[in-house]
Predict the 3D structure of the following.
Amino acid sequence: MTDTRVVETVDLQALLRESRVADVLDELDRDLIGLKPVKTRIREIASLLVVEKAREALGVAGAPLSLHMCFTGNPGTGKTTVAMRMAEILHRLGHVRKGHLVAVTRDDLVGQYIGHTAPKTKEVLKKAMGGVLFIDEAYYLYRPENERDYGQEAIEILMQVMENQRDDLVVILAGYKSRMDRFFESNPGMASRVAHHIDFPDYSDGELLQIAGRMVAGLGLRLSPDAARALGEYVALRRRQPNFANARSVRNALDRARLRQARRLIEAGKVDAQALTTLEAADIRASRVFGSADPDAPAKEAAC
Amino acid sequence: MRITQGTFSFLPDLTDEQVAKQVGYALSQGWAVSLEHTDDPHPRNVYWEMWGLPMFDLKDAAGLMTELRECRKVFGDRYIKVNAFDSTLGFETMRMSFIVNRPAKEPSFTLRRADGPGRNVRYELETRRG
């Protein structure tokens, strides 16, 4: 130990540059709006990996890192998107060898009859090796109401691989906060193997509007000033209704606004390029979210 | 008698690390790898038993190595080989196949002479275990 810390120094900044992880992190900052705690945490993890690499370069062997993570947050807060980026970051830092993301849910892991679960789970794990396994709605794996549920078997196999093959794959569990908490309570083994818990906060109205702006631009459209205002009101109203799914709700709203715009344009007959690429306030205000003064109406159009 | 079948069979046995690298190469070529095992290495015995299904959609050799460990646990006293299947049009066949596990004591072969009709003589090769 003493002879390893003689003269050598390691330029951490150079290492960071070399791994080009800074690009990914900047991209993350640029592409994803809000999500402050998430970004901080990812930066921390990236730094840790760089430091770990430096230690390795100096010959100070550390214990293999456990980077299994748990993403909690409401629907539409960007868990899958961040997981995708995570795979890339971990790949650039050399923690995973291939950097692909395998996204699965309960159906892909749990079988339908005795003896079906183990091969199915192992198959998925094999495919994910060298990359990141993303388990969406992970709490569905454990069904306490049915003691003969095969989910438990999948969890056990998962835990075994998470423990023994830490350098082969990283597992990211995702789900709603309260349900994930309950999941970890009933599976203490799982809780102790997941080191990083990252909570995705809800977006504020302003952030959602920014996201909407990005989405609209991505579709090659633009919002008229009136439409932008209408969208702001829409977000505020929609938030109070059931099944609000943050960015996903915004995307759905925009998709439907595009439908209305298309109908409006067809009815207008002749249009210019300006009209073709502009979403007007009317397209957004036609949403039922605005019309529903009576409180039981929104329940039905919950997904809208 | 040391069996020489498939790729690398005249080399010393590959270490696990070397196997993983070869498998990594196969995967990088887009070939699907699979494991097979047998206790009869007779050259005409081309159908070895499969260990699970071929591993399609594998990205990294770690998947196969996991299975290989499992397979060795069960059939450590058998021959185990890795096959790499190329599905591209025109090939559609094994591109690589090599032995990754041998029994401690390998069987030998007996050459047997048999009389056929009309004073014909046939020669048969038989695996001799034990």
Remarks:
- Chain A touches chain B at residues 97-98, 100, 119, 122, 125-131, 165, 168-169 (CB under 8 Å).
- Residues 1-5, 293-304 of chain A have pLDDT under 50 and may be disordered.
- Residues 246-268 of chain A form the longest helix (23 residues).
